[in-house]
Structure formats: C-alpha cells, structure tokens
Amino acid sequence: MINGQRIVVVMPAYNAEQTLEKTYHALPHDTVDDVIVVDDASGDRTAEVAAKLPNVHVIRHELNRGYGANQKTCYKKALELGADAVVMVHPDYQYEPRLATAMASMIANGVYDAVIASRILGTGALAGGMPLYKYIANRLLTAYQNFLIPYKLSEYHSGYRAFSKEVLEKLPLAENSDDFIFDNQMLVQVIVNGFSMGELSCPTRYMPDSSSISLMRSIKYGLGVLSTTLEYKFSQIGLKKSARFPRGKPRAAD
User: Tell me: the pLDDT tens digits for 69-89?
Assistant: First the structure.
C-alpha cells in the first residue's frame, strides 16, 4: 500500500511467455498489493507461467478479444479486488516496471487522477530503440491531439499508465474499442471527464522479444487517433453526440 491506498498492477498479456516472469520480478512488490494477468487466448504458455508466480490473479480469455477488451477485464477485476490505484504494466518488459511505485504514489497522495509514463520526455524513446517511423508518427499524432484537445501531453500513445479508482468507475470504458485504439480513447475520456493527468519520464527497451504491432496495425491505430480526436471535437462543439465523449467542460492543463 501507499498512503493507505491499495495498489493493483494489471498486465494485459498476449504471447508474453518469454518476458512475463522477468517483468513480474522487476515490479516493486513492497508497494504492490495484487497483480492481475489477463491472458488474451495466447498461443504460448503465458497463462501457465503467470499461474506459477506468487500473488498473481490469472484470468484467461478462451477466445482472443483484443487489447482493449483485455484492459476492460483487467480494470473490472482490479476494482473487484478493492484497488484504489491501478497501474497497467505491459508484460513484455518494454517499459520500466520499477516506476510503478512513483506512478501509484502520485495517485495515492492525491496529486493526479491519472499518470502517464512518457517515452518522449528526455531521450528515452530513440535511445531505447523505438523505430524512427514510430517516433515520427508519435510526434505528429501527439501534436495533432495537443492542438485540438485542451490538455498538453508529451505523448498520447504510451501504454504505461496509472488510474485512480474514481477514474475507472466513472469512465464509460464499455463504449471504447476492443482494439489498440482503446488506449487513446481512454485518455481522451479522462480529459473529457475533468480528471487531472500527469507525466513522468520512462526509459524503454525495444528488444526482439518485446511485443510490437505491425506496420498495418500501426497505420490503423494512427487513423483511429485521427477519428477519435474528431469525434471528441465534434461532440464538444455540439455537432455530433457521442456516448464515448459526452459533451462537457474539460479541465485545462496547469
């Protein structure tokens, strides 16, 4: 616990047999109360590896539902376990697991409602091996969203994030995609609902056994970011209703 708050780490997993255990052992277990691994019908031994780890709740989808659907299961289970702060850590060891304490602390101490671990702050992304085309796409898409959304982030596309219980209970996550664009839709929902969001710098490791989506899936994600932002914008100016982004008064960044 941190400041009397229950900390739960969730790991949406797919074919993570080679890296799951290493990621788990790098977590700050002195502050993490529970770990949840949701295996999205992997073709390898992900679920079996997870089941052998101590203090891990393992859920396995019998059919592959997608990255977004995996997160929905993760957050539902975390709330069932009484989580006050939830940190999502990808089990491919690409992000630094030890930062979970810092991220959870920002929430448990009431500094922010949500926290993003940014690969862009400092020199982490390219130094860690992020492909140049992904880096350029990240910068362009982030600039686009920073221009149209009144909340400035160094990147909208990090998969390492933490949320308070209140965020997970209020956001209409069921309205979001079951695919990779879920991540981006969720961040926009955080802003639409007036929650505060902070960032910290995170080193990353792009290694052969780290998960990575294909070029075509990356393009699909990029198009999803464009449409998500327009859906948000049209909703907020009253041109089109959106159950995902109901019209409101988002809080501007400090």
Answer: 999 999 999 999 999 999 999
